[in-house]
Design brief:
The protein is α+β, with helices and mostly antiparallel strands and 213 residues long. Helix content is 19%, strand content 23%. Helix 2 packs parallel to helix 4.
Length: 213
């Protein structure tokens, strides 16, 4: 298949949303080399097997001191590990944070998945990841517009009845500002009714939230 950069027309924000969705879903994630920095390439296969772009060197991309088997992508001048390593908001550093968050939280790595109903399902993706020891809520606004009419619900869930406080594990927007999520009240059988963790979801935003009673 084509690289994600090609599929999403080089839109960095969409690539970050795709990375968050991929690395918070069940299963064993596989990251093809270069996806974590946003390398370009489309079929046929040789076009997606260009040298890894370690540096901005357009001769070899920092891949080797010899001659590579084919030309380095022209975007290596800006899309490379060396450049993105020092940029806090880069795609590479988001992948690092997502991988670290997944490894540190069993619910993301091994938990069950429950897609939640929400009042704006066309624009917003919401799901619970659960193990017996941990519950995590993932929310992503996939649209380029803010969402205000947003409430979550479920007839049943893995959550025990009671009140939960949500704390932020990762904010896709790379902001260090604290976020106060509304408490979540869960009824019998894990029922959730009209839960709005935030008044507004920013355009193309994403949150990974730890739920604790």
């Amino acid at each position: 298949q084509n690289r994600v950069t090609e599929t999403l027309s080089g839109d960095l924000t969409k690539m970050k949303l795709a990375a968050m969705a991929y690395l918070t879903m069940p299963g064993l994630p596989f990251i093809y080399y270069g996806e974590e920095i946003g390398m370009s390439g489309s079929k046929p296969d040789p076009k997606i097997r260009t040298p890894m772009q370690w540096s901005s060197d357009l001769t070899s991309g920092g891949f080797s001191t010899g001659s590579p088997w084919q030309a380095v992508n022209r975007d290596a001048a800006t899309v490379n590990v060396q450049t993105e390593d020092s940029a806090p908001g880069s795609l590479l550093n988001l992948y690092r944070k997502l991988v670290q968050t997944r490894r540190a939280n069993p619910a993301l790595a091994q938990g069950s998945l429950l897609a939640l109903n929400n009042s704006n399902s066309y624009s917003v993706a919401t799901y619970l990841r659960h193990t017996d020891q941990q519950d995590i809520l993932v929310i992503m606004n996939l649209s380029d517009e803010p969402v205000t009419d947003f409430k979550l619900s479920a007839d049943k869930s893995s959550l025990r009845a009671g009140s939960y406080q949500a704390s932020l594990l990762l904010n896709l927007n790379n902001s260090n500002s604290p976020i106060n999520f509304a408490p979540l009240v869960v009824g019998s059988d894990g029922a959730i009714k009209d839960y709005a963790p935030l008044n507004t979801l920013a355009p193309q935003s994403g949150y990974i939230m730890l739920l604790k009673k």
